[in-house]
Amino acid sequence: MGGRAVPLGGLKPQVLLAALVLERGRVVPASRLVELLWGEEPPVSARSLIQTYVSKLRKAFADLGAPDVIVSRSQGYLVRLDDARVDAAELAVLLGKARQQSQGHGHDPAARLLAEAVALSRGPALSGLRDTLLSGEARRLDELLVSVQEERFAAELGLGRFDHLAELTAAVARQPVNERLRGQLMVTLYRLGRQADALACYREGRDALVDELGVEPGSELGAIHSAILRGTLELVPVDAAPAARTATAPAQLPATLADFTGRVRELAELAAALRGEAPAVQIVAGPGGCGKSALTVRAAHEAAASFPDGQLYAELRGTSDLPATAGEVLGRFLTALGMDPAQLPESTQERQERYRTLVAGRRVLVVLDDAASEEQVRPLLPGAACCAVLISSRDRLAGLAGALFTELDLVTPGEAYGMLARIVGEARLAEDVDSAHRIVDACGRLPLALRIAGARLASRRQLPLRVLADRLTDERRRLNELSAGDLAVRSSIALSCRALDDRARTALGRMGHLGLPDFSTWVVSWLLETSEAEAEKVLEVLVDAQLATLSGADAAGVLRYRLHDLVRLYARERAEADEPAELTASIARVLDGWIALLSRTAVNSPPAESTWRPGAGHQEPDGVTVMAERLSDDLDAWLRGEESAFAVAVERAAATGLHRHVCDFVSAHTAIEQAASSYDLRDRIIGVAMTSAQHVGDPGLAADVLAKLARLRFFQDRFAEARQLFGDALSRYRDLHDVRGQAAALAGMGLACREPGHLTEAVHFLSQAATLSHALDDRVGIGHVLRIRGSVRLELGEYDEAREDLEQSLAAYRRAGSRRGVALSLRSMGLYHRARGDYETSMGVCADAATIFAELGDDLMHSYAVRAHAKAQMRAGHSAEALPRLEAALATVRAKDDRWGQAITLRVLGQLHLAEGRLDLAQDYLDAAMSIWDAMETPLWRARTEYDLALLHRSRGDVEAADAAFAHARSVFRARGAREYAEYAELPV
Fold first, then answer.
1. What is the model's pTM?
2. Contact between 292 and 393 (Cβ < 8 Å)
3. Residue pLDDT, tens place only, 830-852
4. Would you list the DSSP string of 288-349?
5. How many CB atoms lie within 10 A of CB 520?
């Protein structure tokens, strides 16, 4: 700068700066810089190193008075060169000007400009960086310089000059298979009277072509040789290429779709990029049928005015059996650019050189549709930076250096509806909007499917939308329905599958048959009986083929992949035709994997109650121990993320006859403590297991599943139903003499009696469960039953017995190693100490419980412990400190849709506001709690809240309402045997 060299540092900073300069004025993504500097195996600290290199380069430029050369952007960096000269760009500009001069002003001005262009070269392009990943760009610049040299020698020959002989001889020596340069050297030698040397030059060139490329000289070089032999050289048009310019610029773009809809952002970004001063190669990638071709053609039309020298278009047939060859496409391009078809070079290399020569310095847009690979595309890329290339491909073509990507996914719901409306007509869709949305959903928002559905409706004006929607809803008919004319979703997907290897094709088929909403690498490894690493490689092949998408990572850090619904249906169809016998076994392996994983997790983290464990005989896949360890940090989050997959898998397993697998999976699933889950999905899973248990014909299995359903009903606050189901399960266990089952069912009955306030009955069932648990020496069972019985005795006012039960429960849980059980018992001990007026001790044990729940990631029970702690604070006179913690607890139980927790927390908040004299707020909270108690049919808790309302009425001076509420509440206390009957003999004044 200013005549002073800028110290750039080592090789990698030089590559970085070169990459930015070559993309003059455009942002280079950081990911692209990482790829250029380190290839496929970058270090973990790659992005940090990029920042370091940029910082050092900025300092080097700042020291010379140019601090703002490298500019940061959100996605990467760009170089701001302002008026600085970039040799590569200036070379292309001079070449373009020279061609314009040669058209209207003869060879002399063109020769001067071309000599100026040649003078810019001071050696090989990107010297010192040619062994880096910029080598492809270096070759492109070299080819541009060769084009300039060819044009210059042609101009010199056109002027009758021969003083370039030494330079031309050196150029041919460097490029012995460049036929144009060799022809120019032969002409120069011949016109200098050196015919023998000219013929020797031809023989040397022929030998080089045969030895290096295995081809004979092209027609033009042969024509020069023949003319020399006949002495008729002046009849051969030596410099046909520069003069071969059509009067009309090629305009080959196909028509754009009249009903093109959506893709507003992508279209605007593509068109703007193409209109830029130095447009890069733009790649539009996406799955088959997503509208890549429609978008590229539309964007090309919108940007066409920026390319006055023409627009070239080629359908590369990348997904067909016969992809277009580079030589074939180059021949069409050269003809469109004005070359006589009879003079087209034979070899692809020659055609490529001519093509790049013709478009250098011209604003030409090249659109390449349906590209198969980088190898197919590279020969078709112009060498001139002023040309633009727009490519559509199912492959991402990541190997094209400097290319910018537009990744197409499905259209948005609004765009999908709009596309259907453009084809069918807005008014027709308005007649049955629900069916229209069902059609959009069945098409999976895939443009090709929407276009086909729209075409079927448009060609059948009398076909009701509801009929087509019903047909598409049937998964077995959907692909058949999505066919119209030469458009078919099935054939589009088949084209993407054609290039898959056997392993990837098998994976796709088994994934489609299993039909999960998304797949972890664990599941796919089980489907294929391979390692997780190998499964990930196969899945990446499917991603590259646009048949699967990476949907993220789950709570265990395991990558997850998704199939589009229509791809899933096609894959299932093919799998059932290609390997029907293996499909059931692959599903069994998936359930075996989950069963082993959940069972291992249950062993690592003992639950807080007795559970039903799966039967033996399931094969444990390799790596399950490590997988279980990865789940230890956030098991609940992993379970929540996997529940939809669980539900689909058990339904598919039941449909294929794997009924014992279904029942054993449900046993393993319910053996895991879950802080929160979708009751609907658990209901769906257990419902399948109920049917499967009947198919198995095992009475014990049927009793287990019935007990699991009862447990679910309890969690759903359907206490009467839970009690009935636990009773039915208990009868079956007694018939089977299953003592462990009886203990679990009796404990469940005790719980189902406690919540609605049947306290005496609860103690009756829990005492029986305690006896059986002691006989089994089931520490977890003992801890669970005694904790529940202790809490019921606390409700009854039997304080000594309650404390004894709770202390024994805590000891049993500690012996069993159940941290969750310990936390539950500590919280119950906190309730005991609060009831006895020992608020400090209550707050201490509740805080300990909250800490454990937090460490376990159990947000729901953490909120229960926080609420118990806050109520003790409130009783101790620290209401101001308790209020925000109670409000946070309420937010948690609402987020978890826990009605019981909401009602209790609302009641405590009402009590707090009542104690603080905020009567209106108190009434709001207490009334809200009353509504939930009524909905849940829990009369004891309703009576306790009614007692609080009696106190509120008394505070307002409404004695009549207070006495009525108090009398009703006290009658319930008496009927239920609750301790409040003795404690609240009369309403405080």
1. 0.64
2. yes
3. 999 999 999 999 999 999 999 99
4. TTSSHHHHHHHHHHHHGGG-TT-EEEEE--TTSSSPPPHHHHHHHHHHHTT--GGG--SSHH
5. 25
